[in-house]
Design a protein that fits this description.
By secondary structure, the chain is α/β, with parallel strands linked by helices. It contains 13 helices and eight strands. Belongs to the DeoC/FbaB aldolase family. DeoC type 2 subfamily.
């Protein structure tokens, strides 16, 4: 197992010991408290029933817009489509200049240069899915080359996928080493570690994978690629929010969570914001610590925002297509 990443140095003794070798890492991960499946699902369902009043709803919509990683990850992506996406990221509703810009655009590595040019000077991050996305089935050398290419092309964030096969077969040290190596290849770019929770099966595995990614230096832990079902769910996001909250309690460091895949409407987005506030805390209600990975969500947020301000529903023809 490689030495801990620079982001993990100076850890409390119990966490530093966990990164010492494979056996210590295994002992730590399997020593984490088990997740109460019934409890976490009941709490997620309970928080999802919270009602948000009109003024607060508008604020929540604007908060959610500012947390969106506007995404296109299709084999048919073109430079023109990416430039159009970036234009929407800069000004989500052309008729409403007060609408916040999104947090980032997320594209494949070969589209990063186009996205970086189209967002230059805006403060919008360019995220790139690297490391043989979405399967992660490749050699470490290829994953690192993928990462370096994305960063050299202008990516300020890298969304990597873990080797789920290695994780599920108990090769925690191998997964740890890959995250450490990719983090180093990122340089100044932030690293989001995709767990692909739909393939991890249990909440206990989600908790272990979350802590593994945090120990290895991930700046964010991310639910999913959006290519596997189920993708993001509220209970899974609860478990991940608990992990970053507990990490902060033990280290004083803030790490983020990104929920991606299947979040398509404003009602769902607000449910996630309620979970962020109640599980991790209000400090996490910022794009620096929480993101939505989405393509269709932004349109619904924009339509609901217009409805809040205008008193009627405008319909999809009044927002730009992705």
């Amino acid at each position: 197992m490689a030495a801990p990443s620079t982001a993990s140095t100076g850890l409390p003794p119990a966490l530093a010991d966990a990164t010492r070798d494979e056996m210590s890492l295994r002992r730590f991960l399997h020593g984490l408290p088990g997740v109460d499946q019934v409890g976490v699902e009941q709490r997620a369902a309970g928080l999802a029933t919270r009602s948000i009043k009109k003024a607060s709803k508008l604020q929540a919509i604007d908060t959610a817009i500012g947390m969106v990683d506007l995404t296109t990850l299709e084999g048919a992506d073109t430079a023109g489509k990416v430039r159009s996406l970036c234009a929407k990221a800069r000004r989500p509703d052309p008729e409403r200049p007060d609408v916040p810009k999104v947090a980032a655009v997320c594209v494949y590595p070969d589209m990063v240069a186009t996205a970086a040019k189209a967002t230059a000077g805006t403060g919008i991050d360019v995220a790139s899915v690297a490391t043989a996305f979405p399967s992660g089935r490749s050699t470490l050398d290829i994953k690192l080359a993928d990462t370096r290419f994305a960063v050299e092309s202008g990516a300020t964030e890298v969304d990597m996928v873990i080797d789920r096969g290695a994780f599920l077969s108990g090769q925690y040290g191998r997964v740890f080493d890959e995250i450490v190596a990719v983090k180093q290849a990122c340089g100044a770019a932030h690293l989001k570690v995709i767990l692909e929770t739909g393939e991890l099966v249990t909440y206990d595995n989600v908790r272990r994978a979350s802590w593994l990614a945090l120990l290895a230096g991930g700046d964010f832990i991310k639910t999913s690629t959006g290519k596997v079902s189920p993708a993001a769910t509220l209970p899974v996001t609860h478990v991940m929010l608990q992990a970053v909250r507990d990490w902060h309690t033990q280290t004083g460091e803030h790490r983020g969570v990104k929920s991606a895949g299947g979040i398509r409407n404003t009602k769902d987005a607000i449910r996630y914001l309620v979970a962020v506030n109640e599980v991790a805390g209000p400090e996490w209600l910022t794009p620096e610590l929480f993101r939505f990975g989405a393509s269709s969500l932004l349109n619904d947020l924009l339509m609901q925002r217009r409805a809040q301000l205008d008193g009627h529903y405008s319909g999809p023809d009044y927002v730009t297509v992705d």
